[in-house]
Design a protein that fits this description.
By secondary structure, the chain is α+β, with helices and mostly antiparallel strands. The chain has 8 helices and 14 strands. The protein is globular and about 70 Å long. It starts with 6 loop residues before the first strand and ends with a helix. It binds zinc ion (ZN).
Length: 341
């Protein structure tokens, strides 16, 4: 077992005007991600429930321009793939529609609109909506590797609402695929390979076993998927899901995707109750055709604007120092989350 949960605790002194300039000790924790060794900082602020953002205001801003993903506009406003990639130009399943992204973040970059409904509050998502979306994304990826053997790295991603960087409110996933991984995906793949070489085991298998044994960040399992609070959080609430023994998104079965959708709904319920209204999600695949040292996993980070001026929750730390700041200890997040599974 080579899993190490490394941390360092430091203290800073201030003289607090709110307490007549009495001396106060502040605590800061640095944590090292057990796989990538990337450092993050954790400030455990005594925040339980966040202030609820004004959704009407957010939706009003989004209503200033016509939505290209609504059913009456989609056919005219969105691009098509070539017929030899996707017959008819767009892939459809239930209410899901997959078409090319106008912004080419990778050689293959697609959008999967999830529903006909323009705005879906977290509480209104259904297992069917999520299953249809993620399973259609996987069907699209299977088609990609069939037509283009150079495509070896892919992921399915989600920016939910503008606070997370989502420029269109209408719920949609983004699928990217190409011959190189993204930076973090590459770090995970290399980290998993290195771990396997050194310890002879799969990192994610050992991570699940260790987290289960410790019981501090292990939330619950849903079928083949295990939900954890990430040890080294990449944001306010960072939740991880690991799909056991699947190295690539291509390998996911319908049952895996149903399990994943059911877990996501439980996470959404928690987000809703704690006023986390926006998030980023990444569902990562190992190298297609590579070794078995990677297990498919997802990471979700909540996003928000900070009061009182509505500041971004991404600062010089994330942008220019490559470190994230978590404001709640993952162990506290895990305790809160458990009641939802
Ligand atoms: Zn719309």
């Amino acid at each position: 077992m080579g899993i190490e949960f490394k941390r360092r605790i430091q203290q800073a002194r201030i003289f607090d005007p709110k307490r007549g300039y009495e001396e106060k000790t502040l605590t800061l924790e640095t944590r090292w991600d057990p796989l990538t060794k990337k450092t993050v900082r954790v400030l455990d602020l005594p925040i339980k429930k966040l202030e609820k953002p004004d959704m009407d205001e957010i939706l009003k801003k989004g209503g200033d321009f016509p939505c290209p993903f609504c059913p009456d506009a989609l056919e005219q406003a969105t691009p098509c793939f070539s017929d030899d990639l996707i017959k008819g130009g767009r892939m459809r399943f239930g209410e899901v529609c997959v078409f090319p992204n106008r912004l080419p973040f990778d050689r293959y970059c697609a959008v999967a609109v999830l529903t006909k409904g323009h705005f879906v509050p977290l509480a209104d998502f259904t297992e069917e909506m999520l299953f249809n979306g993620f399973s259609t994304a996987c069907v699209f990826l299977r088609r990609l590797v069939e037509v283009d053997p150079t495509v070896r790295y892919f992921s399915v991603n989600w920016n939910y609402l503008p606070m997370s960087g989502g420029s269109i409110i209408h719920p949609h996933l983004q699928i990217i695929g190409g011959d190189l991984p993204t930076h973090y995906q590459g770090e995970m793949i290399q980290g998993g390979r290195g771990y396997h070489q050194q310890w002879g085991e799969v990192f994610w298998d050992e991570l699940i076993a260790k987290e289960k044994e410790l019981g501090e960040r292990y939330i619950e399992s849903v079928g083949n998927t295990v939900w954890l609070a990430s040890y080294a959080p990449l944001g306010f609430a960072d939740i991880m899901a690991v799909v056991k023994e699947r190295t690539s998104l291509i390998d996911l079965t319908d049952q895996d995707l149903r399990d994943f959708a059911q877990g996501l709904l439980k996470v959404f319920q928690y987000f809703q109750d704690f006023n986390h209204c926006s998030f980023n999600l990444g569902l990562y695949s190992g190298e297609y055709g590579g070794d078995d040292s990677f297990w498919v996993n997802a990471r979700m980070v909540t996003r928000r604007l900070l009061p009182p001026v509505g500041a971004s929750d991404v600062s010089y730390f994330e942008k220019l120092h490559g470190e994230s700041i978590g404001f709640k200890k993952p162990e506290r997040l895990c305790e809160e989350k458990r009641g939802y599974f």
